[in-house]
Specification:
CATH superfamily of the largest domain: Electron Transport, Fmn-binding Protein, Chain A
Bound molecules: flavin mononucleotide
Number of strands: 23
Strand content: 25-35%
Radius of gyration: 25 Å
Number of helices: 13
CATH architecture of the largest domain: Roll
Number of domains: 2
């Protein structure tokens, strides 16, 4: 059964010993970060701080910070199950006869149960504060010593495309400026920023309504980070993930809708043209991202549950909670990537690559230059455009095994011949590019080279023992008693 809300997920985590409650006072200023960092780095549990210093609201962190918790969050034994469900939909053929149609019914029912449902009221409105509200009520973290202030780190930010009315939900951090004002850190390439640009260009409105939901059932929270095409509603995808519609409720001050089960909702607007310094912030990269100008979010109303729980995360030197969230994205999106690039066998984004810095790709090579076609195609695929280094290897290489990939790739390349550079958009968090958001990428073709690619020498085989010898030595190994020593 999918989780009803954040608190039912917390209960399930506690029951399975995946969550530890901290009953004594811990400071949201740096101390919670140190707890969360130690927990994630040691394979520890999610943490629920019952008494964060300076607030009556408990703070939950590291909810997704292991593959096990990612699976619990998404209600699966293995995230590959979701990839298979997606692949099943993508392979759906037009039914040929009555039996085919009958077989399709469960799939159609699955789709129809994914659509979000508008409801008239929700737990997120148990308390409505139109005046006299302040963000100081919540245990918002000051994550790292060099941060520019306190940041809301796990928000679902809702906006609408002013031209089409389509909804977007993205996770963009919010720096607290005062009790009613935050930064709005939607990076240039993200959908929230696109909505803002379109509204500004229309010249019709000066205020863009924005609503921020904090803490919901885990599949809904998770959907905010998914790099979905702009036309796909994250709430529809969340409904697909949880197998039950997300119930949405209209905001008090705008027509935007938010998940009815949210713990906390901040309603407000972003004023066209208003910019303010945001950052620095200890970021996904493990470095501080530099301060820069971003729009400002003015809060007009806060609604919340009677006893809300504040959901948060920290990012920093990998691996952190976001690595596990990203790993699940990698697995879930592989079938979608393979729909456009069926030659791709597998991809891997190792933790050290912090999502955008490194992507390892194995592929079935069919024609000269094929590996380069794949790297250029990846640079053209949604947020995969940020991939700073792409390493392409043959299909027999297990890219989940980074050591094997490095060994084979490094043997296979003639650097001058096999490495190419390309210019293009760069992740806003990259501190090394010559300009913000624009710089170079590197593609490494580490596949075996062919004559048709101009390689005229012989290409050697990888060393492998013959299987009959292996079998014989299996027995001899035991005879020598060596199996007892390993
Ligand atoms: C914990 C966490 C924090 C994030 N913070 C930001 C952020 O501050 N700004 C941003 O543009 N993207 C941020 N992202 C990445 C976006 O959520 C992600 O790119 C998402 O797909 C954006 O949605 P969109 O395509 O609908 O804009 C964050 C991701 C995670 C996991």
């Amino acid at each position: 059964m999918p989780f009803d809300d954040l608190r039912s997920f917390l209960r399930a985590l506690e029951k399975t010993r995946e969550l530890v409650r901290i009953p004594f006072e811990v400071d949201p200023h740096l101390e919670i970060t140190e707890f969360a960092d130690r927990a994630v780095k040691s394979g520890g549990p999610a943490l629920l701080f019952d008494a964060p210093k300076g607030s009556d609201v408990p703070a939950a962190i590291n909810l997704f910070a292991s593959m096990r918790r990612m699976e619990l969050a998404l209600g699966v034994g293995n995230v590959e199950e979701i990839a298979s469900r997606i692949a099943g939909f993508l392979q759906m053929q037009k039914p040929q006869g009555f039996m085919d149609k009958l077989k399709m019914l469960p799939k159609l029912a699955e789709i129809s149960s994914a659509f979000p449902k508008t409801v008239s009221d929700g737990a997120c409105k148990e308390v409505i504060r139109r005046s006299d509200f302040s963000l100081d009520y919540f245990p918002i973290l000051h994550c790292w010593p060099g941060d520019g202030g306190r940041f809301i780190t796990l928000p679902m930010v809702f906006s609408r495309n002013p031209e089409t009315g389509k909804r977007n939900c993205g996770m963009y951090r919010l720096q607290v400026y005062d009790g009613q004002t935050t930064g709005m850190h939607w990076q240039k390439h993200k959908q929230g920023a696109e909505h803002y640009r379109r509204l500004a260009a229309s010249g019709k409105e000066t205020r863009m309504p924005v609503a921020v939901a904090i803490g919901s059932d885990p599949a809904t929270m998770y959907s905010a980070i998914l790099p979905l095409p702009p036309e796909i509603d994250e709430m529809l995808f969340a409904g697909f993930l949880r197998g039950r519609p997300v119930e949405m409720v209209k905001c008090e001050t705008s027509d935007l809708e938010v998940p009815a089960n949210a713990e906390i909702v901040l309603e407000g607007y972003v004023e066209v043209g208003e910019m303010r310094r945001e950052g620095p912030f200890g970021d996904h990269t493990g470095f501080y991202s530099l301060d820069d100008d971003y729009p400002v979010f003015h809060i007009e109303c806060i609604t919340h549950r009677k006893k809300p729980v504040y959901a948060t995360t920290i990012v920093g030197p990998p691996p952190m909670e976001d690595f596990y969230m990203g790993k699940a994205v990698e697995r879930i999106f592989l079938p979608l990537m393979r729909m456009q690039l069926p030659e791709i066998r597998d991809i891997c984004m190792p933790a050290e690559g912090v999502f955008h810095n490194l992507i390892l790709v194995s592929m079935r090579k069919s024609y000269p230059g094929h590996a380069r076609k794949v790297m250029h195609a990846i640079w053209g695929l949604g947020q995969a455009m940020f991939s700073k280094v792409i390493v392409v290897v043959d299909e027999d290489v297990d890219v989940q095994n980074v050591a094997e990939t490095a060994w084979k790739a490094l043997n296979n390349i003639d650097p001058q011949r096999d490495i190419e550079f390309s210019m293009g958009p760069i992740d806003s968090l990259d501190h090394s590019s010559r300009l913000p958001n624009y710089g170079s990428k590197m593609g490494i073709d580490a596949t075996a080279k062919w004559q048709s690619e101009g390689f005229t020498r012989r290409w050697p085989a990888v060393i492998e023992m013959s299987s009959d010898v292996k079998q014989r030595v299996d027995d001899l190994w035991k005879r020598a008693g060596l199996h007892r020593r390993s």
